[in-house]
Every structure is written in C-alpha cells, then in structure tokens.
Write a structure and sequence with these properties.
This is Nucleoside phosphorylase domain-containing protein. With 214 residues, the protein is of the alpha/beta class. The protein has 4 helices and 7 strands, in the order βαβββαβββαα. The protein has a domain of 86 residues: Rossmann fold (3-Layer(aba) Sandwich), CATH 3.40.50.1580. It is 23% helix and 14% strand. The strands form 2 sheets. It has a 5-stranded mixed sheet. A two-stranded antiparallel ribbon has the order 6-7. Strand 6 and strand 7 form a beta hairpin. The N and C termini lie far apart (101 Å).
Length: 214
Amino acid sequence: MNSKRPLQDEDDSDASGPKRPRTREPFDIVSHVGHGDYTIAWICALPLELTASRAMLDEAHPSLPNLEGDDNTYVLGRIHRHNVVMTGLGQYGTNDAATVATNLKRSFPNIRATLMVGIGGGAPSQADLNLGDVVVGTRVMHYDMGKVVESGRFQETAVAKSPSPLLNSAVSNLRSKHAAHQSGDWMASLLKSRLPTLSHPGERHPDRLFLASY
C-alpha cells in the first residue's frame, strides 16, 4: 500500500469521509471597450475646458494603448450611447490641433465626428447670448487666413465650410428639441452636482459682463 496521504482540500478534516470538491471563485470577466468602438472625438484647447468636458461623461472607461507615434493623452468614456475620446492640446494653435486630430484618428480608426469644444473666444454682437450659454457652430472658418489691406485692416480670405451631413443633421435635431423643451435648468443642476467648485459664486460676487466695444 502507498503510505503517502492523498492530497486533500484544507477543510477536509475527515480523511475517511467523502471528499468535497474544491470550490473556486469564478474569474471576474471585464469587458473593455476597444479602439474601434469609439466614434466621437472631443478636443479641448485648455485644461479647464477638458475638466468641464470630463464631467459630462456618463461612464468612464479605462485607458487604452496608443499607436506608435501618437503622443496624445486620452480620456475615454461614454455619453448616452456614444463612446467618446477626449483629449487636450499641448499647445494652443491650429497646427497643433490638426496634429492632435490626425494622431487621434490613427489610434481610433472609426471616429465619425470630431468636435472642438471649449470657451468661445468671440461671438456676433447681434446674437442674444448670456454667460453660460452653449453655442453650437454650423460653419467652420479658418479665421487667421487672410491679408492686410492698404488701410492696415486684416481682411479674411478664407471660405466658410459646412460640417459633415452627420453633424448638420444632429444640430437640426438639437435645435428642434431645444425649442420644444428648454434645458437650461437641467444643465445648470447637472454641472452644479458634478463640478461644485465651478458653481456660481453667489450674489456677493456677481458676473461681470462687458460691452462688445470693450
């Protein structure tokens, strides 16, 4: 007879009784969203803009490796049913923005729309705008393309371009929804709950609005 004691589970105290099968906890299966599942690119020029953008995510996703040569740093997540890739510019300018967008589309090949999101640098004086309003552009203008005329004034020569039909259709739908249901109160409460440090400072520190001619 073999004098060696057979291997048993540690909790089998009675060797003569029936052996209980070893129980194992099932592996936790984590399903990661892959590069090809992201369809919306979201680019911000300033860190503060990216901070506010991150608060809009309904769900945050773990980071994914970049392709070789892509030096961008990404924030991944989901807004409603859209998987979104967010990133910021290393330097402010159109050339850097083009480089960031090109590398982003290399690492995430199924991007359908690219949005430039941030604080507006200017607005038409005829528009009825208030601090905190969200402005959605319907045309893209290369603002620094032009020439200096005899009077010393800078004359723009760029031709305005329309966004893709996908974005134009989305903007039309958004306009219709906004006209039917004003969403200002909902947006204000959302930002207040997710970004408490950026809430309104109160009546003792009112907003300072300046005339367009300032």
